[in-house]
Amino acid sequence: MAGADSQKNGDNRPSKRTKMDGESSASASPAAPGPPPTMPTENPYLAHLPPSERFTSNGAANAASSSDPLAGFVPRQVTGKQARAVMEGDVNPFAATPRPYSQKYRDILAKRKELPVYAQMDEFYEKFNQNQIMVMIGETGSGKTTQIPQFVAYSDLPHTRKEKGADGILAPRMIACTQPRRVAAMSVAKRVAEEMDVSLGKEVGYTIRFEDATDRRTTFLKYMTDGMLLREAMNDHNLERYSAIILDEAHERTLATDILMGLLKEVVQRRSDLKLIVMSATLDALKFQKYFNDAPLLKVPGRTFPVETFYTPEPEPDYLEAAIRTVIMIHQAEDEGDILVFLTGEEEIEDACKKIKAEADDLAASNPDLCGPLKVVPLYSSLPPAQQQRIFEPAPERITPNGPPGRKVVISTNIAETSLTIDGIVYVVDPGFSKQKVYNPRIRVESLLVSPISKASAQQRAGRAGRTRPGKCFRLYTEKDWANELIEQSYPEILRSNLANTVLELKKLGIDNLVTFDYMDPPAPETIMRALELLNYLAAFDDDGNLTPLGTIMAEFPLDPQLAKMLIVSPEFKCSNEILTIAAMLSVPNVFVRPNSQKQQADAARAEFAHPDGDHLTLLNVYHAYKTNCPDNKTASDWCWQNYLSYRALMQADNVRSQLQRTMERFDLDLVSTPFEDKRYYTNIRQAIACGFFMQVAHKSGGKGTYQTIKDNQLVSPHPSTTLDHTPEFVLYHEFVLTTRNYIRTITEVRPEWLLEFAPAYYDPSNMEGEVKRIMAGIQGKKAKGPAAGRRK
DNA sequence: GAGCACTGC
Question: Where do the Helicase C-terminal domain residues begin and end (predicted)?
C-alpha cells in the first residue's frame, strides 16, 4: 500500500517527502509524484482549498489557513508541544466540523494532565516518530489505555487521511486499540469519546462481538476486542484499514493477543507505514522488546498506594480454613477498610461465605464493642449480574454511633484479579491458588486444575489493596515459597489450550508453516499435530496441510471446528435450522440451573425437556419450548425461572444463533428442516452431529454402563445429568470432563453404520482395535454384499 | 449420581 521504503524504522515519509521536493517542483503537474498514499489528502478544515494547496512543501498542513488548529502538523513528526497546544487550544480539530471545546472537555483535560502518562508525552512522541514498533510499560493508573491512542491520533491525524476502501467508501485510516475483554473495550471507548469531546460511535467507537459502534466514514479511533481484530485479519491479511495498532494488556497473553503479535510482526515488514505499540503492565517488558526486534521501551509509572505484604511463618495445610481465619483476624484487629479474598471456585466461595458470616455474627454478638457488622459478598462469573452488583454496595453502617465500623468482605475468583475492580478494598487475602486450564494433548483433553499462581498474579492481587489508599496483603504461604515455588509469569494461554481452532485461524490468516511461525512462546509440537490431525479428519485441511474450501468456510464461523463442520453439512441432512439451534446451545454456558437447595425440583423440571435419544436433542427441546412460551422479555424471565433454566444463557443462545444464521446465509447454506412428522426428523439431526463429532465417540465396554473412547481407549461414564435413557452401543459426546471420574457430557446415541458411512477413513477397520474393529468389519462386509453402498458422501 | 477459573469470535 504505502511506498516501498525499506528503512529500518519503516516510516520515513516526512524525510522522504522533503527529499522529493528537492528533486522536483511541488507543482500540481500530473507527472509529479504527489504526496505518498498515506499522506493527508482529505482535511475537512481545508476543504475550501484545492488539495494541492492544503499542505506546504514539507507536507505540513498549510499554516496560512490560520483557523486550522492542526496547521503546521506533519503526520508522525508531531511533537508533544504541538499536541499540547491543540489540546489546550480553543477549537476541537477532531470534531466532524471544527467547533469550540465544551466546558466538560476542559474539566476532563485538567484531570488528564495529572495522569503519569501525560508527563511523558514528549518522550512518547520522540519514540513514536522514530520507530515503527514500540513497547510500553504502564502500571495501573498510568492512564495508558485512554491517553496513548489519543496521542497517536494527534500524530497520525487519521481523520485527515481518508482513503477509499474496497467498498468504495471514503474512510479514515484508523487507529485500533485492542482489549482482551468486551466491557473494557466498551467503557474505555465511551470515556475517550468524552475526553476528546466527540460522539461515541462517530469519531471514536468500539467493535465487539454482537455490537459495532463505529461509523465507516468517520470513526478514526476504534477500541475493540483482540479476537475481533483477529477476525478482521482473516479477510485482510495486512490490516490495511489501520494506520496504527495498539495491543493493550499484552501481558495477559490471551490466545488472540499472542496470535496477533506473531501476525503483526510479519505485517509490519510488509507495511512500512503501519505503526505498532505493544502495551503491558510491568515485568516482562524485556521479553516483548526482544521479540519485537529490540523495540524501544517507554516506561510510565503507575499511580497506586503502597501495599504492605505479610507471609505466614509456616506453610498452611488448609488454605480455605486459613483464609477464613485471616478474614476474622483482620476484622478484629485492623482499621476500617474492606477485604478481598481470592479463592478458586463457586463451591469453595459459597462455603467460605457461609462460614465467615456465621463466625462474624457470633463475634459481633458477643463483642459488640470490638467487632462491627460484616457483610460477606460472593463473586464469580456465573453469578447473575444483579448479584454481582452487590460487590459495589457500601460496607454496613456501624451499629452504635461510637461502635466499631462495619466492613465488607468480597470472596472472589480470579475475576477480581483482572476483569472487575472494586473500590475501597484495603486488605487482600491471597491463598496463592487459582483454577487454571491445562491441555493434555496425549488424551486430547482440556481440564481445570487448582494450581499455584504466578508471582505476577500474586502482585496483581496485592495491588488490588492499594487502589484508594495504602493497604495490606496477607499471603497464606511462606516467603520462602514465594521466592522458590512460584513461577514468574503464568503460562500463556497458547501453551495450555487445544489449538484446533487456532490452527484453523492461522491458516486462514495466510500463515503457511504453523510450526515455524514466530510465536512468542511456541506451543508443543504435539499440540499442533493434534490440531492438524483433527482438521484433516474433518476435511478442513487436505493431506498436504492446506486449507480446503470447506476449511475456508469453517474458519468463518465463530465455533470450534467440529461444530462448524456439523453446521456446514447440516443442509445436506435437511436439518440446518435445528443444527443451528444445537450449535448455539452448545456455545453458551449451561442453560440448566440447579440450586443446591432445590436439586430435585430442578431435575424434575429438566425431565420435562428430556429426549431419550440424547442430550443434544434435549437442548433442541429446551430452545423450542423457550421460543414457544416466551413471546416477550417479561414472560421469558418468569418462564425460565419456573423451569429452572438460565434466562441469561438462553438469550445468549438466541444471539449466537442469529449470528451463525447470518454466516450461513453469507455462504448460501440453506436453512431447512425435515418435517417434524417425518420419521427421519431426529435421525437426520443425529447424523449431522455425527459428521462433526465422529472423533468423539465412545463404545460400550464392561458392565454398569461404562464406555471406552474409540481413539484413546479412556474408560468413561456418561455424566449423571444425561437424559439418555438407555445405554446404546455407541454414543457421541460433546465434552470429556475430568473430575472425580472421567465423564462424557452431553451425549447422544449414534449408529456404527453412520460412523463408517460419514467417516470411512477414520473408522476403517484396519485403524480400529478389538470389538469396534469387529463391528466395523462386519458392517463393511454386509455393505459389500448388499446393493449400492453409501448413500451420502 | 454431578460442577462452570476466566475470556473471546
Answer: 323-510
**pLDDT range class, residue A753, cuts 50, 70, 90:** very high
Which nucleotide is nearest, taking the CA of residue A210 and each C1'? B9
The count of structural domains within chain A is 2
- If you average pLDDT over residues A373-402, what whole number do you get? 88
- Give me the CA A16–C1' B6 separation in Å, rounded: 48
How far apart (Å, rounded) are the C-alpha atoms in residues A119 and A106? 18
Give strand B nucleotides closer than 7 A to any protein Cβ: 1-9
Q: Are residues A296 and A312 in the same domain?
A: no
Return the closest nucleotide (C1') to the Cα of A437: B5
Say if A332 falls within a structural domain.
yes
Would the pTM count as exceeding 0.85?
Answer: yes
Q: Are residues A228 and A358 in the same domain?
A: no
Residues A153 and A220 in one domain: yes
CA distances from A202 to A198, A215, A220, A495 (A): 8, 5, 8, 39
* Residue A720, nucleotide of least CA–C1' distance: B1
Cβ atoms of residues A251 and A424 within 8 Å: no
| Section A514-538 average pLDDT | 92
- Give nearest nucleotide to A345 (CA–C1'): B5
Q: Which nucleotide is nearest to A450 (CA to C1')?
A: B5
Whole-number pLDDT of residue A70: 83
List the single protein residue with the shortest CA to C1' distance from B7.
Answer: A181
CA A554 from chain centre, in angstroms, equals 20
Q: Which pLDDT band holds residue A407 (cuts at 50, 70, 90)?
A: very high
Backbone angles phi, psi at A601, to 5 degrees: -60, -40
Distance A721 CA to B1 C1' (A): 8
* Lowest-confidence segment of A192-196, A438-442, A537-541, A562-566 by average pLDDT: A438-442
| A589 vs A621: CA distance, rounded Å | 17
pLDDT at A422 (0 to 100): 87
- What's the CA A227/C1' B9 distance, rounded, in angstroms? 6
Q: Where in the sequence is the domain holding A390, given as residue range(s)? A: 307-495
Nearest-CA residue relative to C1' of B9: A558
Classify the phi-psi angles of A496: left when phi > 0, otherwise alpha if psi is within -120 to 50, otherwise beta: alpha
Q: How far is the CA of A442 from the C1' of B3 (A)?
A: 24
